[in-house]
Design goal:
The chain has one domain. It has helices at residues 5-25, 27-39, 42-64. It is mainly alpha-helical. Helix 1 (5-25) packs across helix 2.
Length: 65
């Protein structure tokens, strides 16, 4: 199974669309979320990022196989 650049580009475009939904629909919620994230310790953010990457890889593997 190979993934070409257009598939990767489409996935990134979808990510950008989903990332913009909350700030577009409810900017005040997005501001509170960003403020809370800015106040979160770096260690916790790193763990959340790692967990998100692992979860995304597992989900991608499950969907593709």
């Amino acid at each position: 199974m190979s993934m070409d650049w257009s598939t990767l580009g489409a996935a990134f475009a979808l990510y950008l669309v989903l990332e913009g939904v909350i700030p577009f629909l409810n900017p005040s919620v997005a501001q509170r979320a960003f403020k809370a994230m800015a106040e979160t310790p770096e260690r916790v953010l790193r763990f959340m990022g790692l967990a998100s990457m692992i979860g995304g890889c597992v989900l991608l593997y499950a969907i593709r196989n």
